[in-house]
């Protein structure tokens, strides 16, 4: 599922973010922030991947946990099964195969978002996150706050009023 930061969430790591939740169980939850581009490609920051299909993989800030680690994640819509498929924590060989698949989206993430047991549930109870299904959206159509606004508006148009408020109310 997707977690869309509620407009009242001002914590810098997650304000105006879209999180692709990759696992959620009794031990906690794990995902990556989809809409915080790093403005570089893998080939720009790694000599190891400067040539080949992974050189063009866009990089993102995946979350505040282990930001020194690179994690590959890919997804695609499987039309024949009508399902959203995600692959997370790919090794470079599998990531390269996915990079060559025109029907898939592949990204590299520095770090990830993680919640301990019960933490995400508590945040959901107080309304920190708005939930959406990833299959309902083109997650590659926009980036940054524009993706967040688009998804938030599609799930709950009333939240767009709050989403368009300036970060500094004095600038309103």
Please provide the ordered H/E string of secondary-structure elements. EEEEHEEEHEHEHH
Secondary structure tally, helices: 5
Structural domain tally: 1
The main sheet comes to: 9 strands, mixed
CATH class: Alpha Beta
Which parts are unreliable, with pLDDT below 50 for 5 consecutive residues or more? none
Task: Provide a descriptive summary of the structure in words.
A hairpin with a 4-residue loop joins β6 and β7. Helix content is 21%, strand content 38%. By secondary structure, the protein is α+β, with helices and mostly antiparallel strands. It contains five helices and nine strands, in the order ββββαβββαβαβαα. The longest helix is centred in the C-terminal third of the chain and has 12 residues, at 144-155. It has a single domain (2-171), classed as 3-Layer(aba) Sandwich (VC0467-like), CATH 3.40.1740. The model has no long low-confidence stretch (mean pLDDT 90). Strands 1, 2, 3, 4, 5, 6, 7, 8 and 9 form a nine-stranded mixed β-sheet that branches. The N and C termini lie far apart (33 Å).
Summarize the structure.
The protein has 172 residues and is of the alpha+beta class. It has 5 helices and 9 strands; from the N terminus they run ββββαβββαβαβαα.
What labels would you give this structure?
globular, VC0467-like, 172 residues, alpha+beta
Write the layout of secondary structure elements.
Layout: E1 2-5, E2 18-25, E3 28-33, E4 37-41, H1 42-45, E5 58-61, E6 65-78, E7 83-90, H2 92-99, E8 105-116, H3 119-125, E9 129-132, H4 144-155, H5 159-163
Parallel strand pairs: 5-8
Antiparallel strand pairs: 1-2, 1-9, 2-3, 3-8, 4-5, 6-7, 6-8
